[in-house]
Amino acid sequence: MALYRRARAAPPPRRRALLESLVLRFPDHPLAVEAFHALLARSRPRPLVLATLKPIPLVRAPSAGESRAVADALEIGRLERIGAGSEPALAAFALYHAARLADRGGDAVRARALWERVAQLPVEGPIVQRARAALGAGSENAEQSAEPRR
User: Fold this and answer.
1) For residue 65, is it left (φ>0), alpha (ψ between -120 and 50) or beta?
2) What is the sign of the dihedral through the CA atoms of 59, 61, 67 and 68?
């Protein structure tokens, strides 16, 4: 993706802006996850959960004897902690993915609370638009209605 290549070649102040743009504009792209990890590693103050940050993919697979629901719940908690202590762009990305996981797992109450947190952040882009669409849909599977139309 051209935006990611430009960000990697840019000087530090511009790099951060380009990486944040990538994270906010293309939240489901694999390079956005790499950009998220790069931003997290350079964020100040560094989130305490950075030590437990696993490499790509963002969502971990269940370990032996662990169900998908348990793995998702652990990942949602980790993403919520990142979202609570990060800059707005990083918080939006982390909470967006936490809301998607909660919605996928059928936890409509938690998903709605996460979508509301995303919608209140002072950032703009597809992440916030999807959160607002999910809140407007009001269904248990609100995230599906928030997906972009192709």
Assistant:
1) left
2) positive
pLDDT digits (tens, 9 = 90+) for 101-137: 899 888 899 999 999 999 999 999 899 999 999 998 7
Q: Are 102 and 114 in contact (CB under 8 A)?
A: yes
| Residue 49 DSSP class | G
CA distances from 55 to 58, 60, 109, 111 (A): 7, 9, 29, 24
CB 43 within 8 A of CB 62: no
Instruction: Give the C-alpha distances (Å, rounded to integers) separating 93 from 11, 61, 89.
Output: 23, 20, 6
**Token couple for 108:** 């409509």
